[in-house]
Amino acid sequence: PIWMATVSAPTNIACIKYWGKKDAKWNTPTNDSVSVTLDQKDLRAVTTAAASIKFEKDRLWLNGEEEVGASDSKRFRACVDGVKALAADPSKWKDLKIHVSSYNTFPTAAGLASSAAGYAALVAALAELMSAKETYQGQLTTIARQGSGSACRSLYGGFVAWKAGSAEVSTEGGTPWADSMAVQIADENHWPELRAVIMVVSDEKKDTSSTAGMSTSVATSTLLQHRIAKVVPERMASIEKAFLEKDFESFGELTMKDSNQFHSVCADTYPPIFYMNDVSRTIVRIVHAYNKWAGETRVAYTYDAGPNAVLYTLEKYVVEVGALMAHYFPSPATATTAAAADGYFNDS
Ligand code: DP6
């Protein structure tokens, strides 16, 4: 027989950014982070995991093409072996090989947090396949985190924090960093008016991967050390409060400031890393001019390790924000922008 399970996981967009690893082996972060999980309509990964005694080795296909050797990668192994250890009947799966096929519903190269959705879907599909049982709440997120840090936050909906955790907290099996896991702060029904608008500025592959970039930042940026010690702890507390109170003014300001600081850390990295481009910076200016004109924060930008903008706004301002951006970017290149903005409205 072949056993199969198919799941889908959405991506998430951080408001307080994860940037820096404390323990590269276990993929734990230098600071807490928090994100909004988008809904399942648009930006998601759909993954099927299958097991059979007829399979000779683990294999992985991404968007229909086999990733040769990917099944031996540290990230993939951590996920497969991690979930196998939690299987309801571990002896059944121990020697079975796994085939995984995953599709993104958005361009992988665009750098729209595709690894977050991808590894979250991988862990969820494996967990479903093997009826895995957590020995404590959040354990599956500690496995997804080893696939890609940001993936742990996509296992829950709503507003989700990734707690940095501590090396001293271990499972019964002796795995350290057992509390470096995702925790849901508010579920997906808490703030139904919140929207994310994605502006695809470029769909070219980024030149510095997050993993490489954050490693250089940890080694060279003094601003990152200040951020870890002083800035993030305060911001985490403030933004959780803002989200729970549905206070868009504070939520937006904290989100924009944290994006700005993350990109400042990149500039403070030696040699410096630049993810935003001129179009990204123009969007920043438009957002501030619009909020100033409105006399309140109606839209907030945030940028990950690439030039694409994610705009958080409220349902009542979505049409206005879309029209504003279409006004400034009417050229063919920006026809994509308007179309993407149209197509990627998300109930967050
Ligand atoms: C800028 O989760 O992709 O999007 O753990 O090395 O796979 P790895 O990194 P990854 O980094 C994401 C960085 C970020 C900020 C964030 O999502 O918090």
UniProtKB/TrEMBL annotation:
Residues 196-348 form the Mvd1 C-terminal domain. One of its GO terms (cellular component) is cytosol. Keywords: ATP-binding, Cholesterol biosynthesis, Cholesterol metabolism, Lipid biosynthesis, Lipid metabolism, Lyase, Nucleotide-binding, Steroid biosynthesis, Steroid metabolism, Sterol biosynthesis, Sterol metabolism. GO terms for biological process: cholesterol biosynthetic process; isopentenyl diphosphate biosynthetic process, mevalonate pathway. Its main location: plastid. Pathway: Steroid biosynthesis; cholesterol biosynthesis. One of its GO terms (molecular function) is diphosphomevalonate decarboxylase activity. It is found in: Plastid, Chloroplast. Its EC number is 4.1.1.33. Residues 9-167 form the Diphosphomevalonate decarboxylase-like N-terminal domain. It catalyses: (R)-5-diphosphomevalonate + ATP = isopentenyl diphosphate + ADP + phosphate + CO2. Catalyzes the ATP dependent decarboxylation of (R)-5-diphosphomevalonate to form isopentenyl diphosphate (IPP). Functions in the mevalonate (MVA) pathway leading to isopentenyl diphosphate (IPP), a key precursor for the biosynthesis of isoprenoids and sterol synthesis. Belongs to the diphosphomevalonate decarboxylase family. This is Diphosphomevalonate decarboxylase. The chain holds residues 11 to 358 of 426 of the full protein.
